[in-house]
Amino acid sequence: MIESPPISNAALDPVRAETPAQNQARLSQCIRLQRAFSRSINLARDGEALDPIHHYQPTSRALEALRQILPGLTHEAGQRALALIGPYGAGKSAFALFLGALLGARDSAARQVAHSVLKRADAELAEQLHSRVGAPRGFLRVQVNGLPDSLSRQLLLALAAAVEREGLPEKFVNRLQAAARAGASMDQILNRIGEIQTAWAESGGAGVLIEIDELGKFLEYESHHPQQREIHLLQLLAERAAEPSRTPLYLVVMLHQAFEYYGNRLGSRLRDEWQKVQGRFGTLAFLEPAEQSLRLVAAALERTEPRSTEVEARLVADLDALAETHALPLGLEPDAARALFERAYPLHPLSLSILPILCQKVAQNERTLFSYLASSEAFGLRQRLDQLMMGDWVGPWELYDYFILNQAGGFSDPITYHRWVEVVTALERFAPVDEASEAEVEDARRLLKTIGLLNLIGAQCGLKASHPVLDSVFGAATSKLLARLEAGSVIHFRRFAQEYRVWQGSDFDLRGALQQALVEQAGLSLADTLNTLAPLRPIVARRASIQTGTLRTYTPAFTARDRWPPEPLDTGDARLWFYLAEPDEEPDLANAPELDVVAVCSFTERLRELVGEWLALRDLPRQQAALHQDPVAQREHQT
Q: pTM of the predicted model, to two decimals?
């Protein structure tokens, strides 16, 4: 293996910064980010835009989704309801935009561009899709953006916009707009869709495509207004889509997790109903492998000048080192890897290998990936291009700095968050035991951040914090820097796995302790707990006080079935009761005290869960003495 010298940056390394650079251009003058990759997709805004379609990269997941859609593009009965489930930023909205263009009017510019893009990726699939949609006007595209609002209202408004855009008779627009309200009759909605299908067929259309982006926002709204039962509209639409028709209905929805997870605040019975509705949809997990994300990065960067011979030589040496340790993404051959990593300069090969996995672990996948590429924030790639010169590199530690400064709120997985906290804690307590220069200490901190990131993403075959992988970045200085970190007790070497790990700073199972505490809270009365934790202040009954000349108040309190009915008061005051009803309970309030007011609170299961979690977190330090001796667990508990 060729040993590489440690990488350095003119903008960060004081030694390199002192060298003359008057004749060197900044990398931003020869590398730029394609504009289509610099913002997220909005279906309503970008529905007629050609630029996002022209730059679209059909990934393996996108091609698989198109293959699932293909059999339904007939007049026969079939599965024509598809749910794309994937995390934030996985490319679902961009795919929906591309699909709408593929199924559009045959002579439209958008369809011709989309067909050309797909043909380069899969010529056979492109031809099959093109031949299946033979009607001159293609599919009527109805694109709905998710909002915390009524699905019925937004769907009807989107239908009206699509009908108006395509020039169908104005009477249809007026009917749709008149019906667009929360709680609209589902039969009325289906009848209006049927009218549009018929009118579209008569005007030369092939079918109706309804795309609902961010469906989860509608589901969250529904979970707060379950009395409207709009979840059943999705079931009815999926069933309508399965029917034979000369202009079939195709329904594609995009969301981040399964239906029932958006109903966490509901009772188990309603969550089961939501799960049954999802059963009407075919589902596809929309998450790309790391290799596909590398290709997207390479496609996003354009250069106008060749790389220097120094950069070419360094790329060859470092790629050879990563290939020898099997650290390249699975399925990526060395020749293909070289082409991708060359296009992705100035990202060091190890930085590029870490980046897509890091975006999946701690943020919003492709959306965060492109945000980083286009970011002018501290350590964002666009900002670094304005600072770096030819021969400089973006090292893995810069990814750590970017994410800790700009994406710190993106951690949702507790295990990933726990590992990140360990890295932060290790950096805070690292103090060299020898006499090291400021530059040497900074290099050691960079190495610690790199090891932390490799630990964070988890060992991916050979992509781990092994000595050969770290050599590809830090070169001959690796051994000395590792020794300094080991002496500072912030890393240790796992011989079995042959990798360095940030020292396991916590043996405390916070999640297990919380689960145990929650079990202990299960028998508590929710009403009594709320009355003790959050007693409500009396409310003055102003009219009664003025009329009687005596101060009269309502005393608010929580109650439930096992505390009902209450004893009447002798003071002449009244109480305002918040009755916490059980699922499907119909409280009998006939025996309420004469002056008391009762407000029945349904759907209290989620409130019970939240109060239990709060109590468990509050009591944990008192119940678990080990927590006081564990700084990593303490930080995790406090945040």
A: 0.63
